[in-house]
Amino acid sequence: MDGVSGIDEAGLERLIEAFYERVRADAALGPIFNDAIGDWPEHLNKLAAFWSSVMLTSGRYKGQPLPAHRKHQHRLTPALFERWLAIWAETTDELMAPDAAVALQAKAARIAESLQLALFFRLDSRPISRPAPATDHLHRSVLP
Domain locations in the chain? Predict the structure, then answer.
């Protein structure tokens, strides 16, 4: 059986190889990825394991995506995530069956959203100003 929506290990490996070849050549993403990754074959194996775990529930991936991305947070922007997703959509549409491409694109969009929330979303750290109470007797201490 091929797995979820016609996705199998061999197909994921071909997809990851082709996708990251495009990412590495991309004017916006290439410099960031090429600076961050020292051993591309090892990294591609890790990414294939990640997508295998995500799409096929294989449990092969043992890493932590958020800390890996947080190391490069100073270079990342929401626009770069959009560029990554666009290349992912283009590559999955070309290499995968339509149902598989849709499933992979939907999962990538959710993962990108989660990463962006973790990397970029910050609650306002200023204290909330509250009006002073109308009467002080409501807030007096009852300690002896």
Answer: 4-120
pLDDT at 124 over 60: no
User: Quick check: 45 and 39 in contact, CB under 8 A?
Assistant: no
Give the model's pLDDT for residue 3. 54
Angle, helices 78-95/98-120, rounded to nearest 10 degrees = 170
In this structure, are residues 100 and 5 in contact, taking their beta carbons and an 8 Å threshold? yes
- Write down the pTM of the prediction: 0.77
Asked if 118 and 66 count as a contact pair (C-beta separation under 8 A), the reply is yes
Token pair, residue 71, equals 């190391």
| Per-residue pLDDT reduced to its tens digit, 91-107 | 999 999 999 999 999 99
* Distance from the Cα of residue 93 to its chain's centroid: 19
Q: What's the CATH code, domain 4-120?
A: 1.10.490.10
Of 80, 83, 100, nearest to 15 by C-alpha is 100
Q: Which 8-state DSSP code applies to residue 73?
A: G
